[in-house]
Each structure stands twice: as C-alpha cells, then as structure tokens.
Amino acid sequence: MLRFAKGKPKTRLGWLVLNLGLLVTPVIISAPVEAAEKIYISYGPIEFSLPIAALEVYATVGKVEPSLAFYAGYIKPEEFKQLRQVLITPIDVTPVAIAQFLYSPQGEIVLQRVGEVIQTKARQPGFYAIRAALIKAAFKPEGLTILNVLQEFPTYGIRINSQRGFEIIDDLSKLIQQTQMTIAAVEQASEQEAAAQTERGLSDLSLDLRQPGSVSYTKQTITFDDLSRRREFPVDLYLPEPPREGLAPVIVISHGLGSERKTFEYLARHLASHGFAVAVPEHPGSNADQIQALLSGLAKEVAPPSEFINRPLDIKLLLDELESSFKGQLNLQQVGVLGQSFGGYTSLALAGAEINFEQLQKDCAPLNEDTLNISLLLQCRAFDLPPQDYQLSDQRIKGAIAINPIASTVLGKSQLSQIQVPLMVVAGSDDTVAPALPEQIQPFTWLTTLQKYLVLLKRGTHFSTLAPSEDDVPLPEAVVGPDPTIAQEYMKALSLAFFQTYIAGKSEYQAYLSAAYAQSLSQELMPLSLLTILEPLVREKAGL
C-alpha cells in the first residue's frame, strides 16, 4: 500500500501532490446514481468495449472472463498478472486531501487534461465524472483503488479517447527523444571540454571537495518576524566556532515546494565545516506545513501566488537582520545563494531576474493545454499577481546556484538574461517535474553572465539532491532516481568549489569548476557532466 506519511509531510510531498493529481477531488455523497458498466475504447470509427464486471471478477478471484480474455492476448503474461494487483492496491489518501487538491487551481488543470482522455459515454469531457468517482472511491472501506474508481464512475460508460491519448503519448515521445538527443550532445561536449582541459594541464585537482572541512561550527535557530508582511519564519544558522579571523562569507539555502529546512542540512553542514556561515530559512507559504494544511482542508492551494514575492523577500529580510545582529562577524556584502526547484526560482530572482509578466501572459493566459511541463502549474500562479516591478533582486548576492529551477515562464529569457553574477544551473535528465530541456538547458542558453556553469546529472530526478527524512513519503526509485547520496556528494563538491571561488574569493578553487573535475567525480549510476558554454553545434543537435 502506498501511504502518505503520518503527521507533517516532508521534502518531496509538494511536487508529489502535483504528480499524484490524477488521484484526487471531492463530491458530496448523495443518493445512488447510475454507475459505469463498461469501458469503451474508441479510435476514430473503431470501438471496443470491456465490462467492468469482468475486471472485478479478475481482480477479486483471479478468474478471466471471455470478454477479458480477448484483451489478455495482447498483453504480456507477467503484465497481465500485475494488472490484478494494480486494480485492487489501495492508495492511503483521505477524501479531504483529494478534495483540497483538485479544487485547487493546479488540481483543476490536471482534471481538465485527464478529462480529455477519460470521457463519459456521450463523449463529454470527464472532468466532473472523474472527480465524483475518485471521492466516492476514497470513502470505500478498502480505500481508493482503481477498481473502485471504475465502479463509481457516475455514467453508464467510461470512454477512453484513444486518439487523444495517443496524441499525448506522441508529444511525450517527441519531448523524450529531443531531451535524450540534448543530453547526449551535452555529455559529448563536456567530454571534449574535459579532454581539452587535460591537454592544457589544469592545476592540480588533488583536493577531495566532498570531504568535510576542519572548521568547527555551531547551529542555532532564530525566528524572524516581518511585521509589514505579517510573516514569521524560522532560520537555521550554522556559524564558524570560534569566529574566524576576518568576516565569514555567507551562504543562504532556499528549499523547494513542500520541503523544509532539513532538506539541505547535509549541504549546510558541509559548507559550514569549510568556514562558511550558512543560513537556511523555511518559507512558510510553500513548505511542508503548507502542503499539510492543503491536505487537511486548511489551505486552498499548493502555494499562493504571493510566494513568488515572499520567498525572495524572506531572504532579503534575513540578510538585513544578520547585518544588524552579527555585525563584525559576517561578510554580508558578498553573499551566495543556493536553491532547489521553487528555491531555484528564488535564487534566480535574488540574482537579478524579475517576474516576467509579459512571458506569463503568453504562456498562461490560458495555459497551453498540450504542455507536458508540470512546473507550469506552479509558475502560472504568478500570473495572478498585480503586474509591477517587485524589485526582488539583491545587490548583496554575488553568486547563485539553481538546482532544478522553475524559471522558463515566470522569469523567461528577457529576465534571465539580466543576471550578471556567477551562476550554476543544475539539471537532472529524468526530472519530470521541472524537465531539464525547457527549464534548465534552454534557459542556460539565455544567460549572458560570463561566469556560468551547466551541471547535468544523467538519470537524476527532481528529488536526487534532497536528503530524505524519517517522515518522507516512500517513493520508488523511478521517481527518486538512483542512490541519492551520489547526487548529494556531487553537490557538496561543486557548491564548495563555486562558493569558494566567487564568494570566499579563493581563485585556486576555480580549477574545480571544470568538466575535467566533474569527470573525475562521475559515478556510473549517475554520470556527471559540466559545461561552461553550449556551442552552436550542441544547440543545433538539441533544437535550441
């Protein structure tokens, strides 16, 4: 049984809610209505039907009715056996959680997309019928199962619009193919760059930047209260102990949607052990508590549009407060910022990119029905903000790392090109939430800053760099990716090299920001590539 964690959901649940959006929404339980008896599969003039009762018999007792045997001949035997388990495996999610998500703006978009394929017998979009079936199924004693959803569909028949389904599959196949070609081109270019660097005889790369440093540090938690925004949030501070000679360089880490401060604690401790003062705020409108509030019926959406403003402002306030409270200890005129996913957006905004309302108008009014980019469900919420210059950038930020950032629409080309500080963009080839091609690789080509680095984790996902916690929702490897400690070790080494070079001012670390060093770190389970420029040939292969 797939279970949502008891208590506060952590780390990956925000985007998991979006990915599991096909399994949620409410209706009022009322008198019995007509229930589906058959599934109709149509493609143009051709139509097949399958009695739902035949699926029920197979799922409950394992007997294959003649009407089901016809279809079984087209499925591999092992897959047909798995079908039985798939039909009756419950998903432990409450009706309230279902209701809250699919009545949110993001949830309704998901329902609209699914309703194009799953329709009523009369060929009408299945939006409301799907919602009704899901909530009624969730009230069943055995919980929400696919079989229950089929049985509770409130029309005589369920029509699968195969033509529309194949169109979506075809679009997905094209995106996957283009992404694979791009990944291969990036890897090849990185290998060539590494070979050239080796021939030139780069500086000695004998340091293992994955290892902790020798600096002792203390951890303390401070709560900041911004009265003007009526916003209170905690910050974990990792400070060198005893205070180092001179001012300690400062790094701020911004977590992703539905996450919390502990997500990147491993990285905060690593950087602190090398002499950095590290501040890790928790953003209250888009953290784990926000997702819990959504699932409990206390919030209406995954994250309110105001989070696109509040997140950067949280960090600006944090820097102001540190400047007054730790005067003479911290160098707050030379700050680095690192963020993942929504935190990646936060990093880019602080580094110089403002919200791009012109691009939001193009991409979100309305949202392209054919998009396969899940991150746009969140990015397009910014379109509801009053269009104005929010002045989210901060001159104290002198370098930024954006891991799996969401930025193609909310920031767009014209704003990303405004960033002039050193920048590292990290992408995972198997990221289905913020796909590498539209959200990281293509935006990398829009950057004009001279110091820019594209890092690619092959087989990396949206969750590869995140440290799990005890309360995490258990996810399969297909979602999380290979051993996440590999990606975490990469982040330790590359973020240390980046921040030592551009925030601490230690130029001897710049040699580690190279394709050759990335190649030396690379592990077979999750190959690592680094590029400083996408040559025209690479862009041509990628269709950029």
What does this structure look like?
There is one protein chain. By secondary structure, the chain is α/β, with parallel strands linked by helices. It is built from 21 helices and 15 strands. It folds into two domains: 2-166, no CATH class; 179-542, Rossmann fold. Helix 6 packs across helix 7 (127-138) and helix 9 (162-200) packs across helix 20. 42% of the residues lie in helices and 17% in strands. It starts with a strand and ends with a helix. A nine-stranded mixed sheet has the order 7-8-10-9-11-12-13-14-15, with helices on both faces. Strands 3-2-6-5 form a four-stranded mixed sheet. It has a two-stranded parallel sheet with strand order 1-4. The radius of gyration is 25 Å and the shape is globular. It has helices spanning 13-19, 52-61, 66-72, 77-88, 95-102, 105-117, 127-138, 146-152, 162-200, 265-273, 288-296, 307-325, 342-351, 357-364, 376-379, 412-416, 436-446, 477-480, 484-502, 515-521, 536-542, and strands at residues 2-3, 38-43, 46-51, 91-92, 118-120, 157-161, 217-226, 231-240, 248-254, 277-281, 330-340, 397-403, 423-428, 452-457, 528-531.
Topology:
Elements: E1 2-3, H1 13-19, E2 38-43, E3 46-51, H2 52-61, H3 66-72, H4 77-88, E4 91-92, H5 95-102, H6 105-117, E5 118-120, H7 127-138, H8 146-152, E6 157-161, H9 162-200, E7 217-226, E8 231-240, E9 248-254, H10 265-273, E10 277-281, H11 288-296, H12 307-325, E11 330-340, H13 342-351, H14 357-364, H15 376-379, E12 397-403, H16 412-416, E13 423-428, H17 436-446, E14 452-457, H18 477-480, H19 484-502, H20 515-521, E15 528-531, H21 536-542
